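note to self: dont lose this again. the chain is below, predicted strucutre after it. 163 aa total, dont forget to put it in the shared folder this time
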Amino acid sequence: MIVRRLAPDDLEVFRDLRLTSLRTDPDNFASDYDVWEAYSDQKWASYLDEESVFSAFDGDAPVGLIGLIPQLKSRLNHRTELAMVYVKPDHRGTGVADAMLSHVIAFARDAGLLQIELSVNAANARAIQFYGRHEFAAYGRLPRGFRADDGFNDDLLMVLKLD
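---
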């Protein structure tokens, strides 16, 4: 398995993984499938240009997605947000998520970033445990962080200090 940053010519890999994640695990993401499905190729490409988006590959098959969203303001640009974390169901529990997260943590350190932040569905114990294994620490909880089909879900806010 290899983890690498997606390039502009990986647009279809990105689109397929992102739409699959939003369709199969909607309560793990604040984004909506219908919104992303309607994006133009130019909009999809803008994510690959403006953010650091990575995929894990099992041979030639893309099996996971993870991204870092930069903070652009000068007083905040030491921070980045972890986003779009997804592993295809048949590859869960195989170390793909660990490999992807380790890769983006190393990438962030090499880029001189000082911390990675994330929000995760507070009811997603497996994800919270996963981030904890990688030394992310909870620092807050946002009540009704996003709307789900059956009401609201809280977001657990977590941070990894890289220095």
